[in-house]
Amino acid sequence: MCFWEPCTLVIIFDYLQTEIICVISVVIVNSWSIRRRSTAVQTTDMTRMTVKKIPALKDNFMYLVVCNETKNAAIVDPVEPDRVLQVAKESGVSLNKVLTTHHHWDHAGGNADLFKRYQADTSLGPLQIYGGNDERIDNLTNPVGQDDTLEIGNLKVRCISTPCHTTSHICYYIETPEDKVVFTGDTLFLAGCGRFFEGTPQQMYDALITKLSALPDDTKVYCGHEYALNNLRFGNTVEPDNVDTLQLLNIAKESDLEGRRAMVPSTIGQEKRTNVFMRVHEPSVQKFVGKSTPLETMQALRAAKDKF
Ligand SMILES: *[C@@H]1O[C@H](CO)[C@@H](O)[C@H](O)[C@H]1NC(C)=O
Ligand SMILES: *[C@@H]1O[C@H](CO)[C@@H](O)[C@H](O)[C@H]1NC(C)=O
Ligand SMILES: [Zn+2]
């Protein structure tokens, strides 16, 4: 017996180790497959343009915008340059513009690296970097402001200045005879809006109500992050009787992360029906925060969401 006991212990220990290794590898395989799935590109084919939504980091989106006729392309917020160059190559497009929504690292953090690669490889051609006039945006070659325009091949892009989340935040609006799209960065999210880091409730009001709400209802909204579930939960708390919100919340709840990613793009019309920050005139929204003016409601709503 004395001979066997340690041996049994060793066998048990060996068995446990194998178990632990098994558990660890299952965890690694699981997180690896989640990472793999979440990098899948989703494409929206429109008549004259194509938008490719490329998930990046934890919950960011980068967008490749292609002019169908010329195959010229721009990339919105290329935080992962490797991935951007890979998708551009696979798509057979000529990428020569960066549209920066704002200076935060998870949006503009890839600009310098991408710029360097274009300088190192002249076959890629020159790279123009657009963004709000702000020295915090690396390698900005083309500072833009309200109503400035630029072209991606034959596509006309109009810049919409939306300071508040940051002082130099820009949204990019593209209109063709058939389709409209807007890239809203961290100003407007599906059912939410960005934090007021460098601005006032009045500025977010101007951005969401005066400017973005004025775009056609069928404008597709491509935002900077995947926050659908949490934002819709908040919206449902503010307006429990809003059936459109409830319907979207149920879709978000039933989807895994990848499914929720498929909820972007939204539309301006959908946001006007369901995004409480776009609905600060509504008595139902004002009642939730106990305010009677749209501006006070905007401020109180953001404070409530920050604690949600
Ligand atoms: C635009 O380009 C995409 C990708 O090449 C294509 O799938 C789509 O059909 C094109 N649209 C038209 C109307 O040609
Ligand atoms: C690009 O930006 C980086 C980081 O700010 C800087 O070090 C580099 O000098 C810039 N390059 C040019 C050509 O401006
Ligand atoms: Zn941001």
Automatic annotation (TrEMBL):
**SUPFAM superfamilies membership:** Metallo-hydrolase/oxidoreductase (SSF56281)
Q: In the Enzyme Commission scheme, what number(s) does this protein have?
A: 3.1.2.6
Report a single Gene Ontology molecular function. Answer: metal ion binding
* SMART domains membership: Lactamase_B (SM00849)
| Family, per entry | Belongs to the metallo-beta-lactamase superfamily. Glyoxalase II family.
**Database matches in HAMAP family:** Glyoxalase_2
- Its name, as the record gives it, is hydroxyacylglutathione hydrolase
Quote the gene name from the UniProt entry: 5571983
